[in-house]
Amino acid sequence: MxxxxxxxxxxxxxxxxxGGELHCEQVPVRELVERFGSPLYIYSAATIRxxxxxxxVAFGDTARICYAVKANPNLSVLRLLHEAGCGFDLVSGxxxxxxxxxxxxxxxAVFAGVGKQRWEIEAAVAAGLxxxxxxSPYELPLLAAxxxxxxxxxxxxxxxxxxVEANTHAYISTGKDENKFGVAIDRAAAVVDEIVANPWLSLxxxxxxxxxxxxxxxxxxxxxxRVAAFVDGDAKRSDGVxxxxxxxxxxxxxxxxxxxxxxxxxxxxxxxxxxxGWIPVVEPGRFIVGDAGILVTSVLGEKLQGRAKFLxxxxxxxxxxxxxxYQAEHPIVPVLSRPDAEMRTVDVVGxxxxxxxxxxxxxxxxxxxxxxxxxxxxxxxxGASMASNYNSRCRPAEVLxxxxxxxxxxxxxxxxxxxxxEI
Length: 423
Ligand SMILES: Cc1ncc(COP(=O)(O)O)c(C=O)c1O
Fold this sequence. Notes:
Strand content: 25-35%
Bound molecules: pyridoxal-5'-phosphate
């Protein structure tokens, strides 16, 4: 019988090699491309469930796990996470609309967002959330008016900017003074005063989110200590407070180093929260879906240019923006391993007319032929969700695998759809 081996670079055991061929759960990846075409996003339901469970075990039954919808907003992924006991972290009226379309409850959802519009505030209040994360003073009168119209005070968590270094890419750091997010702690006293003075607002918690792809426990503890010091500065700042929303940002390995030790974050924070009677709220996105997805792409050809060897593939920066936007490194592996194939160092690049359009640079890969398939690993988060139509390219299809079942959960975009908004 053919051996089952770990897929090198994958953070999930649900992507593995069997007879040298990459599988997702019980399904050969090659078969999925034959059915649904290339490029193709493939997600593992088992990995998504396992990650949600890991967060649950770490933070305990009373914690609210609000999955960050932005990481992967596919309706089927949202349903799966609801079934796994998660609520949702939203950042736009569009994400709220997704919950409505998927018939998912909003009472375990929270709503952050640095520039909310009036309609989004009104829609969120009408939906009835666990709480609403205030990030700017201008939101307060709009929220209070929406609460008054609904005849019920709005549960509010104040998002504080604790000015903590998250040691992550500058574009995904959100908890420093120079970032636009939250209310700086030295300006927060007046905002709390305004909330507690308004009968249509009810202060129920505090929120921080330090950034994405954090790998260390320290920043979470530092942020909590800064919030706690602020809260202890005046009795009215803790009156009625029940939740501490420590945000998301739980990092994964992307083929190198360790993921964030989520259990260690919980072990550090839970005693501090218990002391105050505060319920933990977490907003993981990437940690739950990142390792659960791959992007499969087909080789178009290769060419030499100067000293570089380019492997041209049919997926591009419009399908997966992270390498171009964040210099992100995703492991890339052949879908069919040929151990005797000659290894070469290549830049894996897409068809888009940008030098920044690469999926990986200086990668050691076996010699490929046109039509060979490669899998870009750990692309379940901020992959499909950030895809665009740049160069008038249609966005890829998405498939969710559960055991031996594979289900199309997002159709490949058609040219008719691409053009339908234009007049
Ligand atoms: C407020 C908030 N919460 C949670 C997240 C999720 O982050 P991650 O996917 O890194 O867990 C984000 C990401 O930008 C965010 O802005």
